[in-house]
Amino acid sequence: MKLLFCNNHFARYPVPKKAPMGGAWIQNLIEELSSIHNYEISVVLRGDKYSTFERNNIKYFILPVSWFNKEAVAQKYLKKVLALVNPDILHIEGTEMAFASDLFLLNKGKSIISIQGLIEGISYYEMADLSLSKNLRFNSFRGFIILCIVHLNFQLRFKRRLKKELVLLTKGKYFLGRTLWDRAHVKAHNPLCIYFDCPRIISNEFYKKNWKLSILKKDVYSVFIGNCSTPRKGLHIAIKALEVLVMSYPKINFRIAGQAPKNNGNIRYLDFINIMIDKKNLRNNIEFTGPLERIGMAQELEKCDLYLLPSLIENSPNTLVEAMTVGVPIVAAAAGGIPSMIRDEQEGLLYRPEDYQMAAFQISRLLKDQEFASRLGKSAQIRAFKRHDNREILDNMILTYGTVLND
To answer: Do 2-123+160-199+390-399 and 204-387 have matching folds?
Structure first.
């Protein structure tokens, strides 16, 4: 079977020899499939310039993006790849990029569309709680200008992506998803489509780590948060919760994955966060880890006291599954597909998105009762091991491809 994977990853030239070509889930899947005798795997990505290479029996095609739209690729390159590969199935990973919908329309064979996030579903929440009118009094003039630019960027980027995404949602026939939320949104646009449930393959680094309850009494607690570089990830909500928590836990520390805000001329959401941290006098309670690879993420999850997912909207965040796999206690916003992944009071504690007081309260519950926290973490770990059995997922994907090919 010839499979062509369309990945939204941007590959800069020259491509490093050991660089992963996209997210950990899709990289793990294609590497597993490439080891199967009758599978020919090819991957197409956006990049700086046209290039091709082969690595571990996988063919890669890097296609140059348009000079005026970094999410689009000229049709001549898309047609060239389709002609060279002649795939039995085109596997599109993610719906948000223009070149994915263009490739889908050009493909004469069958296509499977794998849902990541959905612009259609998350766009309403992207700037939630960060309206200009609501934050005009709170911010300095510079902070207000930053928010204006963030809002403008949202309008330009999301509106353009939404139009392309709707092509896939309405014209596709086969979809891969993981939560009730993504299924509901796909079916709302395309009620006759065929939907396959497909969990993610998790990197082995997370199976090697196992969170353990600390037997030492302490007054310094560490809360780990995954990447929060955009408003919908809810870091501003987490900071409001931290402001409540420091009254009871003055030495509590929020460790956030990703680069710390820099005053380098770029204007982003994190610059607004920087102002917010100083306004609330929380500089000593927040630490950015810098960029983390898989091993670094696994280490952070193993050593923290709990994991916080403050997103205003998500489908099936990989960091939540990774936290469950490690067994760390979890507090998460009950947004989007998250309630499909973790049960409140059984595998973690949930709260309504934007309710920072409840987020702080749920965190406090776990810090006060570490044995309760440990039980929740263990239950989440058992669920993760059962749902994300990598061999079972691979077998399920092979069955899905066969079903689509023979339909």
So the answer is: yes
> Tokens at residue 171, please?
């014209």
Q: In 3D, which of 36, 48, 42 has the Cα closest to residue 10?
A: 48
Domain 2-123+160-199+390-399 has CATH 3.40.50.2000: yes
In order of 11, 20, 28, 131, 202, the CA distances from 34 in angstroms are 20, 15, 10, 47, 17
Per CATH, domain 204-387 is 3.40.50.2000: yes
- Are 256 and 304 contacting, i.e. CB atoms less than 8 angstroms apart? no
Q: Where are the domains positioned within the chain?
A: 2-123+160-199+390-399, 204-387
From first to last of its 407 residues, the chain has per-residue pLDDT tens of 999 999 888 777 666 666 556 667 788 888 888 888 789 999 999 988 898 988 888 999 999 988 777 788 889 999 999 999 999 999 999 998 888 999 999 999 999 999 988 888 887 777 655 554 455 444 556 666 666 666 666 666 667 778 889 999 999 999 999 999 999 999 999 999 999 999 988 888 999 999 998 766 677 899 999 988 888 899 999 999 999 999 999 999 999 999 887 654 445 778 788 888 999 999 999 999 998 988 999 999 999 999 999 999 999 999 999 999 999 999 999 999 999 999 999 999 999 999 999 999 999 999 999 999 999 999 999 999 999 998 999 999 999 999 999 99
